[in-house]
User: What shape does this take?
Amino acid sequence: MLSVAILAAGKGTRMKSSLPKVLHKISGKSLLQRVIDSCFELNPDQIFVITGHKSKEVQESITDNKKIQFVIQDPQSGTGHAIQVLCKAVKKNEGKLLVLNGDVPLIKPETLNRLINLHDFKNADVSLITTKKKNPYGYGRVFLEGDFIQRIVEEKDCNDLERVNPLINAGVYCFNWGNLSEIINTLQSNNNQKEVYLTDSIPLLKNSLSLEIEDNGELQGINNRIQLSECEESIQNSIKEKHMLNGVTFINKASCSISEEAEIGKDVIIEANTHIRGNTKINSHCIIGPNTFIENSNVGLHCEISNSTIYDSQIIDHIKIGPYSHIRPNSKISSFSKIGNFVEIKNSQLEEESKVNHLSYIGDSIIGRSTNIGAGTITANFDGQKKHQTKIGKNSSIGANTVFVAPINLGESVTTGAGSVITKDSKDNSLAISRTKQVNIENWERKKS
Ligand code: UD1
Ligand code: MG
Assistant: This one.
């Protein structure tokens, strides 16, 4: 039987934040959610999350929280106290208890499995993950005696000699829960932080093992914003390396960020300052950026998108977007289309080979195939209360500065005169024009004042 306890009750004082530490995000996901996701991979029998500081906020932040049992620790008197509260709250303290700090977000399920296997194989009372750090500042230092862990001394309680020990406690433990619960209530808070340390349980257990792994960034604990940004960098580096090895070019990799879920095809070039977020797929042979943001969208083959922002939309193949276009949610731009400078598109569908090249707003619209939307065209889609649709048929030619007062429906091969305000539907093959005729008054002189 495997139970997991994730410690997430602390405030995170060193973050200097009104947000609980475990809710800070790296690459779009909270620290706590990352730890939980790693645990789900192990298929444990039960998962406990210990919350305390802003517990409601922390509990509500978790997706799929039906599989989780919450235990409240109030006040938060240290990591050992958190486990005292857990042992009291749960009837049967039996099987293995994997304890994870909620602020060690990059821990991999494979590493957790290695720890559990070692623990089982050696029939240990406690096994924990350690690593040697070049700069161990802030971590608990682990002291071994032969193969066993003798004790762990926290940074704030170390003397000068203890402080130089590079072997640190990663905050990831596998306990024999029965044995732990027998000694847990004997832990005291007679240390420099006046907290009950979980690490003080180690000398009280007989068979305490260390699984030392290479310091590859996976064990980085987050206590302040510097470590938060180091973690972000480390996760981003591994995401970008994965894409580079799969045939993606980054022109200026440090200035770009890519979500873990993003898929990017071969021979895609990512220019500087490009950010690909959420569930986005970029297909092969695209050039994305510079200065481009794409979230939860699908970009087809051979597209070029520069200096633009795209949310929740479908961009099919061979499309050029930008510079300075904004494609808002629920839009579909079909193949061989072109969206140009200072164009905003929202909740609209553009069929193949359509062009909206300059300074336009297209909202709640359906634009037919091979239709050209002239510069400055606006769909007036909002009457103050409701949004309305604009439909323009295929092969139409919309004159510059046309305003469509929606709802409006134009047939195929319609032309509109430049500067027209279109308020009435028009049929196939018609010209719609609505503007006062130009009057030329000849030999006209301005009044002299
Ligand atoms: C802890 C370890 C240290 C280890 C380091 C690894 C202890 C005493 N020290 O130190 O040996 O090297 O992690 O990153 O355990 N929490 C609670 N309730 C509390 C206090 C904390 O749930 O009363 C939670 C926090 O929300 C956090 C985790 O426990 O997620 C660790 O607490 P933190 O204060 O960050 O401990 P460290 O000083 O990093
Ligand atoms: Mg910590």
User: Anything to note?
Assistant: The radius of gyration is 31 Å. The mean pLDDT is 97. The chain is about 15% helix and 30% strand. Residues 225-432 form a domain with the UDP N-Acetylglucosamine Acyltransferase; domain 1 fold (CATH 2.160.10.10).
